[in-house]
Amino acid sequence: MRSDPTLKKVVTVVGARPQFVKSSVVSRALQREEGVQEVLLHTGQHFDTSMSDVFFQQLDIPAPKYMLNLGGGTHGLMTGRMLEQIEAVLLKEQPNRVLVYGDTNSTLAAALAAVKLHIPVAHVEAGLRSFDRKMPEEINRILTDQVSDILFCPTESAVRNLSNEEIYRKHPAQIVRIGDVMEDATRLFGDKSRRPQNCELERGFILATAHRAENTNCQMRLKGIVKGLNALNQVRPVVLPLHPRTRHALARLDVALEFKTIAPVGYLEMLWLLQHCGLVATDSGGVQKEAFFHGKHCITLRDSTEWVELLDEDVNVLVGTDARTIEREGIRRLDMVAENDGSLYGGGHAGPKIASLIAKA
Ligand code: UDP
Questions:
Q1: pLDDT of residue 207
Q2: Domain of 225?
Q3: Helix (H, G, I), strand (E, B) or coil at 279
C-alpha cells in the first residue's frame, strides 16, 4: 500500500555482496532527495554473516524491510522463487519504480517481476557486455537491460553496447552515462579501511579472489589458477579471501594450496587489502575496477571481461587460467602503478546523479 501518495516510492532489490556495496552509495544519495521513499528488499541470495550482514553494518545500510530467504538452488529454482516472492512484495507496496543493480539472479527476477506489473525499472550498471553467453551474469544483464526504462551506464563502452542493440530503437529508454558507483564507494569508505584480523601481511603482497562459476565448476580451470597463484607466491605472498563456492570447489581439488587463504572479509577490510597490495589477481567484476581505483594493476583470471577500458589502458590483462601466463603477467605487473584521472569511471560522483534522475523520473 502506498502510505503517502505525494512520495515517490522506490523499491530497491539487492541480494548479493557487490549489490550491497553499490546500493549503499545510491541509498545514501536517495535519502537526501526530497519526496523519495526507498523500500529495501533483500532476496537472501547471499545470506550469511560474512557475505551479507557485515556489509549492512559496515556500510551503514538500513535493515531491509523485506528479507526473503531465497539463497541456494539451481539458477532456475532460485530465479523462479524470487520472481514469485518479489511480485508479491511489489503488489503490496505498489511502488512508482523498481531499482536494480548489476547482473545477479536477484537483478533479473526483480526486473521481470516489475515490468510485468508495468512498474518502471531503473538498472544501475547497465550496458555491460562480456559477449560470453555462457556466463549466467551476461544473460541476467542483457535481459534486465531490455526491460528497463532508465539505463545507468558506468562507462562509454556500456553506452556504445546499448546503442548497438536494436531493441532500443523500437522501445526507447533513457540511456545515461553516469559513472561507476563502486568508485563512489571506494572514495566514501576509503578512510575507514582496516586491516583484516590475524593478517600479518607486509605491503606489496598479491591480493587474489576467485569465485566465477566458470572457474569453480571446472577442475582444470581451478587447478590452473591454483598453480599460477602457487608460482606467484614464490615471488610475493599471495592472500585469497575465500568465497564459499570456491572453498567447496577447492576441497575437491587434488592440488595443494601453497598460499594463504582467509575467510571472506568485510568491505572495509577488503579496502585495506586493496590499498596495501602490490597486484590484484581476480575473476571478480568489481575487484578488477577496485584494483584500478587503488592504483594497482590487475591480472584477470577470465577469458573475457566487461570492463574493457582497463584492457585498453593496459592496467589489466586477461590471463585466463593458464598457470604460466598467470605467473608471467603477475610478475611483470607487480608494483606497477595504474593512473586514474577519473575519466573512465566518472571519478566517484555517480550516486548523487542517479538519485537525482530517479527523483525526477
Ligand atoms: N569483497 C569483499 N570481501 C571479499 C571479497 C570481495 O568485501 O572477501 C567486495 C569487493 O571489494 C567488491 C565486491 O565485494 O566491492 C565484489 O564482489 P564479488 O567479487 O563477489 O562480485 P562481482 O563484482 O564479481 O560480481
A1: 98
A2: 191-333
A3: strand
Q: Which residues line ligand 1 (CB under 6 A)?
A: 17-18, 21, 209, 211, 241, 264-267, 270, 284-287, 290
CB-CB neighbours of 120 under 10 Å: 18
CA of 286 to the centre of ligand 1 (A): 6
Residue nearest to atom 24 of ligand 1 (CA): 284
Considering the domain architecture, whether residues 109 and 231 belong to the same structural domain is answered as no
Number of domains in the chain: 2
Whose C-alpha lies nearest to ligand 1, atom 3?
A: 265
Cα 298 to ligand 1 centroid, rounded to whole Å: 15
Q: Quick check: is 324 in a domain?
A: yes
In angstroms, what is the span from residue 287 Cα to ligand 1's centroid? 6
Q: Is residue 138 located within the same domain as residue 215?
A: no
Q: Please tell me which residue in 42, 46, 123, 211 is annotated as part of the active site.
A: 211
> What is the rounded CA–CA span in Å between residue 134 and residue 152?
24
Alpha-carbon span 112 to 266, nearest angstrom: 31
Q: How confident is the model at residue 299 (pLDDT cuts 50, 70, 90)?
A: very high
Q: 137 with 213, same domain?
A: no
Both 175 and 263 in a single domain?
no
Ligand 1 test: best mutation among 207, 239, 284, 298, most atoms within 8 Å of CB?
284
Ligand 1 atom closest to 242 (CA) = 8
Give pLDDT tens digits for 98-138.
999 999 999 999 999 999 999 999 999 999 999 999 999 99
Q: Give the chain's count of helices (H) and strands (E).
A: 16, 13
Ligand 1: residue whose CA is nearest its atom 2: 267
Same domain, residue pair 88 and 61: yes
Report the pLDDT averaged over residues 71-80: 95
Residues 154 and 215 in one domain: no
23 and 80 share one domain? yes
Of all protein residues, the one whose alpha carbon is nearest to atom 23 of ligand 1 is 286
Predicted TM-score of the model (pTM): 0.96
**Residues 88, 66: Cα–Cα separation, whole Å:** 11
What Rg do the C-alpha atoms of the chain give, in angstroms? 20
Q: Are the CB atoms for 26 and 354 separated by under 8 Å?
A: yes
At 307 the three-state DSSP class reads coil
Annotated active-site residue 349? The verdict is no
